[in-house]
Amino acid sequence: MPLTPLHALSLMFIYFKDKKRVDPLALTVSATFIDLEPLYYLLVGEPLDHRIWHGFALALTAYPILVTIGVYFVERLFGKKLWFAYNALRLKPKQVRYPILIVYLCSLLGGFTHVFFDMFTHKDIPYVTYPLAYGNPFYLGTASIIVEMTVIILVVYSILEWTKAK
Ligand SMILES: [Zn+2]
What we know:
- The protein has helices at residues 4-9, 13-17, 24-33, 36-43, 56-59, 62-77, 79-88, 100-121, 144-164.
- The protein is an all-alpha fold.
- The protein has one domain (4-164).
């Protein structure tokens, strides 16, 4: 995906389907923060910007644990600020603090879908199945437009659910 925010937006509809069991903060952070990696390599001027964090080895292990720790503490320390932010964003929250297992599962989903969508649409993302193999066998070339369109449809659906949220 060329645009990082689409990763999070494409998943948001599941929050509106089940606000009690889907943590919007864990989902957003986990689907977004992986792109700190290409941002970093862009800033230091390295041509290969999707590296080890854009692979299932870390996206399904260390990454969701790190996100879970961060989100869990933010929810406990800044509960009031989150209520304010969620209301301002019209997320119509029922709660802002989620059990740690829910935070973890949402973080896992965000990390997984990020790498999953990226592996079809990015040519140079060689760590996808690392350390099993180096290189990206999933890149679809021009057919990656199908994945891009699927994500766009999910984004539009999420926005529709958002506008209907109560
Ligand atoms: Zn990415």
